[in-house]
């Protein structure tokens, strides 16, 4: 098994998730992005408990590109403070090779 990184981000709309996903793939920062159905998020923001419908997107990338991907997502994101989570995952060698190939010119 080989490590890759998953980067998960919430967006206010599926259209924004799609727009940023296409940037990430076009710029070879991610091999694939899974955009999930809307979810309900409950969070504290500026000392008020808020509830919002959001869309979660999971980006598949290499460990070495995860930080650059997170920075690019943050630059394109509408939120003042987007929550961008990243962690390594183990995948089989063929999947890791596909992700590596898709993120390198």
What does this structure look like?
Belongs to the CutA family. One of its GO terms (molecular function) is copper ion binding. The structure is a single chain. With 105 residues, the chain is an alpha+beta fold. The chain has helices at 14-26, 66-76, 93-102, and strands at 2-11, 32-45, 48-61, 84-91. It has a single domain, classed as Alpha-Beta Plaits (2-Layer Sandwich). It is built from 3 helices and 4 strands, in the order βαββαβα. The longest helix has 13 residues, at 14-26. The radius of gyration is 14 Å and the shape is elongated. The mean pLDDT is 95.
What's the number of domains? 1
The number of helical elements comes to 3
| Strand order in the largest sheet | 2-3-1-4
What profile does the largest beta sheet have? 4 strands, antiparallel
Structural class: alpha+beta
Low-confidence stretches: none
Question: What is the CATH fold-level name?
Answer: Alpha-Beta Plaits
Estimate the mean pLDDT confidence: 95
Q: How much helix, percentage-wise, in residues?
A: 25-40%
CA distance, first residue to last residue = 24 Å
Radius of gyration: 14 Å
Outline: elongated
CATH class: Alpha Beta
CATH architectural designation: 2-Layer Sandwich
β-strand number: 4
- Residue fraction in strands: 35-45%
Order of helices and strands: EHEEHEH
Pfam family, one: CutA1
GO biological process, one term: response to metal ion
GO molecular function: copper ion binding
Family: Belongs to the CutA family.
Write the layout of secondary structure elements.
Blueprint (H helix, E strand, L loop, with lengths): L1 E10 L2 H13 L5 E14 L2 E14 L4 H11 L7 E8 L1 H10 L3
Antiparallel strand pairs: 1-3, 1-4, 2-3
InterPro entries: Ion_tolerance_CutA (IPR004323), N-reg_PII-like_a/b (IPR011322), N-reg_PII/ATP_PRibTrfase_C (IPR015867)
Pfam families: CutA1 (PF03091)
Family: Belongs to the CutA family.
């Amino acid at each position: 098994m080989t490590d890759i990184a998953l980067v998960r981000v919430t967006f206010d709309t599926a259209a924004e998730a799609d727009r940023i996903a296409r940037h990430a793939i076009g710029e070879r920062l991610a091999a694939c992005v899974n955009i999930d159905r809307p979810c309900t998020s409950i969070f504290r923001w500026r000392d008020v408990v808020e509830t919002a419908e959001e869309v979660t997107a999971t980006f598949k990338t290499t460990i070495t590109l995860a930080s650059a991907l997170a920075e690019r997502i943050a630059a394109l994101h509408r939120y003042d403070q987007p929550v961008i989570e990243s962690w390594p995952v183990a995948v089989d060698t063929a999947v890791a090779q596909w992700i590596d190939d898709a993120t390198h010119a």
